[in-house]
Amino acid sequence: MSLLQIKNISKSFDGLKALHNLSFNVNDGEIVGVIGPNGAGKSTLFNAIMNHINKDSGDIYFDGINITKKPTHQIAGMGIVRTFQDSQPLPQISVQENLDLAFKYQTDISLVSVFGRHKFLQEEQQVHFTKIKELLHEVGLGSKLNVQAQDLSYGQGKLLEMLKVIASDARLILLDEPFSGLFPEMIKLVTKLIYDLSASGKTILLVEHNMQLIEEICDRVIVMDAGQKIADGDFKTVTKQQNVIDSYLGK
């Protein structure tokens, strides 16, 4: 079943077509890679999905609902989250506070009696805090709980962005070059986090230039060039197509 449907999306900037009649589906539970040369429209695609930019034409559906013109905060509230090429934690608050803001409570507190609500929320906060510590420990940031995000290294900032994705509990995750600038050990950590997200039932759309990682991680690959989809299929199939070699892999 398709969780995300992109239908004939177009977007131009000063006459330059960044997206041109782009259409594809992402099925529930898939990890789909998006590859292509610089300027192919990959980041513009993510901006279009989140409605960070106005589209010229076309529609985007999430879980059967048209989200084309919905405000970004509503789209996020429906269960879509994205990362950026450069990590963007809130710099002047702590690591814990960044994760606090990312957490999404799933429990309907309206079911809690007025008299029991205070205790209930205290218990929720304790569970929440425990989860934060577990996440940080898993990626080697256990000692950074109270450190301001701006004092993290570049790689640590990227790891924090991934932890914020996990904390959000979103159904669809848009990862924009999550491995860029990372040392091999951190690449292994991010790869594990992606596998863990997939194992928990999340759907992932991944932009990445490292073809080895794309082949290793992704169930399916979409190739873009000049704002259009030029191939869609498994890695070995699409990377043998001559148009993909000519537009991207051969460069």
Question: Would you kindly provide a written description of the structure presented here, covering whatever features stand out?
Answer:
The chain is of the alpha/beta class. The protein has a single domain, classed as P-loop containing nucleotide triphosphate hydrolases (Rossmann fold, 3-Layer(aba) Sandwich), CATH 3.40.50.300. The chain is 38% helix and 25% strand. It has 9 helices and 10 strands. A 6-stranded mixed β-sheet has the order 6-7-8-3-9-10, with helices on both faces. Strands 2-1-4-5 form a 4-stranded antiparallel β-sheet, with helices on one face. A hairpin with a 2-residue loop joins strand 9 (220-225) and strand 10 (228-233). Helix 3 (95-102) runs parallel beside helix 5 (154-168) and helix 5 packs parallel to helix 6 (184-199). It is globular, with a radius of gyration of 19 Å. It starts with a strand and ends with a helix. The model is unreliable at 105-115 (pLDDT under 50).
